[in-house]
Specification:
six-stranded mixed sheet; Beta-Lactamase; PAS_4; 18 helices; GAF-like_dom_sf; 800 residues; alpha+beta
């Protein structure tokens, strides 16, 4: 790069010269003088110099005997060729012999030069901040008085600023100044902050501004640096930032543990090297903490810790441990009243903790100072927060105490909200769990196990539910549903729907018919609700028959179930998703599949799939596939359903936040062996009664159920007789032996048998009454081609 053409120093820029003889005539002048006054170079030669000055202006003629080069000069208005005045600073210098040399500088150029020199003098003479000029060797060439007071004017000229670390981009002072000189780009306040740590004193924070300096040829020959102490401004900004973050983040959490951890993360390293939060046991349970404490006696637990320079020291009290006994001190009263306890003497802090040897685990190694405050909200002592300083840091002062007090006041209110939420959430979860069936259940059709995980955070409990309902003829209904919304309202809706499902299941309705009636119920509930558009639910209803090993499934806007076969193959059961409950207007479709015994059937709510998607870009289908693979890997034939369920939801259970509740119902199917079944088909003739009675008697004797022969003969006689009377076509009779003896009579009629109280004068009407007296349960259900009347008799005491 070409070196710029040199220019004269600033005072010489624009200088004009005129030679005047002893007669006052102009004999010579510079071309710049002619141009300044608008004349040709030779136009004024030989004319009186006084003619170049505007009227009524005195001309400074040197007095006789004045020393050569004596100081003098003033601004004169010279006459321009067109008549206007040109202000020029003029100084007359006597020449050897006779005559004078008049040197002139336009007033504008003089003012600019004067301003430049005045600015430099003012900056280097001010006493408010440190201003220094560094040469290429980074030695100080000029400096303001504040630089000397700061100890930066060393005997060898080296500036201690050059050795200070922590400037913009992690540079030292020397690296930053060299960068400014090499790049030609200044560094301003926003990117030049320096923290100077002095043992035993507060950190000093400076704002550094540096700009390159250039010589007459435009070459960099140094830097101008300004260093301003902004420690107080920095501490004020830090205080406001901490208070803002405490208000914005910490006070809004509804989890006590999370709030405590966020608090120590906020305080370290901003306020100290270590911090801990101790919470009352009652606060953690959502109970009522004390309004006043008389020391600490095993009722406070360390909940959160943070170390600025690594993991929490092993020798200190760990998170989750109870605090040792601390005797009552006057300091506890001060803390409870909202004061901050500042202890800048380690021995004083140790004495405050008492003589219990376990209290030594609360004193960090190398402790220099500690500051503590109580988490008090609404008059309740929720816990305490402690901040410690070590490593030659300055002790705590009044500003630190005020800052901690402001932060703790805001956090305590948020933590109390979290405590109250914890109490209400636990009550809601208890209510939710009390409305759900037993977690595990075993029937002839299947072994079932359910898992319910409530939502966390603002959502609270929801309206998920599961159920396994025993049906007639050893069948089992599997139900999973999800009510819209969260909170106690959703829980109440869930309870009503679960009760309705159980009631409708007792009617032996098919899955499609049951969902239709449930949809009507939700419609009525929506009409009664204050906000009808918030009333709705999804539901999956499946009926498994262990006799024919088939499963009927219908869906009201719910996710399809999954099944893992005994050989380990897994698949989804493709179910036509009907409209959600409360939508109405569309029929529900039943899907029927065969499920081998030993298979694991999984019904679940949408929360399981959405939890799998959270934090990833996975689609709904990809998340379903992931859940299916996990289910297949967990569903070993020797594993319990509880273990399978726990493995299925393990990633969700360990997640930090769960915005929706999750329900999973697992069922391991069973089958009734052929040796426990007997079925016959009879033509609709009167002889069918005796024939059915005889075959049933033989089968019962073969099973060793002689004690049930008489009652079963009466039941079959009555049911087959009714079938002959009211139906046409063949009549089916089936006996199933399990924990009970099931007797079924099937015909083509759709008439519903009814139990009634026969009068003394009635000749009939007592048959079903006898059936009800001889059995433990009885009922009827409709099928595709007719109805089935069934009865159950207990086997206890009948075998032998």
């Amino acid at each position: 790069m070409a070196v710029p053409r040199p220019e004269p120093p600033a005072p010489m820029n624009g200088v004009v010269a005129v030679v005047i003889d002893e007669n006052g005539l102009v004999t010579h002048w510079t071309r710049s003088a002619a141009q300044l006054l608008g004349h040709e170079p030779d136009a004024v030669l030989g004319t009186p110099a006084r003619a170049l000055v505007m009227p009524r202006s005195a001309w400074p003629v040197p007095r006789t005997g004045e020393p050569s080069g004596a100081p003098g000069g003033r601004v004169l208005p010279l006459r321009h060729r067109d008549g206007h005045a040109v202000p020029v600073w003029v100084r007359l210098l006597p020449l050897a012999g006779a005559g004078v040399l008049a040197l002139g500088l336009p007033a504008a150029a003089l003012a600019a030069w004067s301003d430049e020199t005045a600015v430099g003098r003012a900056l280097l003479s001010q006493d408010l901040w440190q201003l220094a000029v560094h040469g290429l060797d980074l030695r100080i060439r000029q400096a303001s008085p504040a630089v000397g007071r700061a100890g930066r004017l060393t005997s060898d000229g080296h500036d201690p600023l050059c050795a200070m670390p922590g400037l913009e981009g992690g540079r030292t002072g020397a690296e930053l100044l060299r960068h400014v000189m090499e790049s030609g780009e200044p560094v301003v306040d926003a990117s030049g902050v320096l923290r100077a740590e002095t043992p035993g004193r507060h950190d000093l924070v400076y704002s550094l501004t540096a700009a390159p300096l250039h010589d007459l040829w435009g070459r960099t020959n140094g830097t101008l640096t300004s260093l301003v102490d902004i420690t107080e401004r920095y501490r004020s900004a830090r205080r406001l930032d901490l208070v803002y973050r405490a208000t914005r983040s910490l006070s809004g959490s509804l989890e006590v543990e999370r709030t405590a951890q966020d608090l120590v993360d906020l305080l370290v390293p901003s306020m100290g090297d270590l911090a801990s939060v101790e919470i009352a046991e009652a606060t953690l349970r959502g109970g009522e903490p004390p309004r006043s404490v008389e020391g600490v006696h095993g009722d406070f637990r360390r909940l959160a810790v943070k170390h600025a320079h690594g993991p929490w020291p092993a020798g200190l009290l760990q998170a989750g441990e109870l605090l040792p006994d601390i005797p009552d001190r006057p300091g506890f009263r001060d803390l409870e009243q909202g004061h901050v306890l500042v202890v800048n003497e380690p021995d004083t802090y140790a004495a405050f903790l008492g003589d219990d040897p376990a209290a030594a685990r609360m004193v960090p190694e190398g402790l220099r100072a500690s500051i503590g405050a109580a988490l008090v909200a609404r008059g309740l002592v929720l816990g305490y927060v402690q901040v410690y300083r070590a490593r030659q840091r300055a002790p705590f002062d009044g500003q630190d105490a005020k800052l901690l007090q402001e932060v703790v006041t805001r956090v305590a209110l948020g933590m109390d909200n979290a405590r109250r939420y914890t109490r209400e959430h636990r009550m809601a979860v208890m209510l939710q769990n009390s409305l759900l069936p037993p977690v595990s259940r075993s029937t002839a059709a299947a072994e079932t196990a359910g898992i319910y995980l409530s939502a966390e955070g603002d959502a609270g409990v929801g309206g998920d539910w599961f159920d396994a309902v025993p049906l007639s003829s050893l069948r089992t209904a599997l139900v999973v549903g999800d009510v819209i919304g969260h909170g106690l309202g959703a829980t109440a809706t869930m309870a009503r729907l679960r009760t309705a499902v159980q009631t409708l299941s007792d009617l032996d309705l098919g899955p499609d018919e049951l969902l239709t009636r449930l949809d009507d119920l939700v419609h009525r509930m929506a009409e009664e609700a204050e906000h009808p558009d918030t009333m709705g639910a999804s539901c999956l209803y499946a009926v498994y028959d262990p006799v024919d090993r088939r499963c009927q499934v219908a869906s009201a806007g719910h996710l399809r179930p999954a099944v893992v076969h005994p050989d380990g193959t897994a698949r989804f059961i493709e179910v036509a998703p009907g409209p959600g409950l409360g939508v109405g207007g569309m029929p529900f479709e039943v899907t029927e599949v065969e499920i081998p015994p030993g298979s694991v059937l999984a019904l679940y709510t949408n929360g399981l799939i959405e939890a799998e998607r959270r934090g990833t870009s996975a689609s709904h289908e990809e998340a379903e596939a992931t859940v299916l693979r996990r289910l297949a890997g967990a569903a070993g034939p020797e594993r319990s359903l509880d273990a399978i369920g726990e493995e299925l939801v393990a990633p969700v259970r360990s997640a930090p936040h769960r915005p929706d509740d999750i329900t999973v119902l697992l069922a391991r199917t069973r089958a009734i062996p052929a040796t426990s079944l007997a079925a016959w088909q009879f033509p609709a003739r009167p002889t069918a009664v005796a024939l059915a009675r005889g075959l049933a008697t033989e089968q019962l004797q073969e099973w060793g159920l002689d004690a049930l022969v008489f009652s079963t003969e009466l039941v079959i006689s009555e049911l087959v007789t009714n079938a002959l009377r009211y139906a046409r076509g063949p009549i089916g009779v089936r006996l199933v032996r399990d924990q009970v003896l099931v007797c079924e009579v099937t015909d083509s009629s759709n008439s519903q048998p009814r139990l009634r109280q026969a009068r003394e004068t009635d000749e009939g009407g007592r048959g079903l009454f006898l059936v009800a007296q001889l059995t433990t349960r009885w009922g009827s259900r409709y099928g595709a081609t007719g109805k089935t009347v069934w009865t159950e008799q207990a086997l206890e005491g009948a075998e032998g």
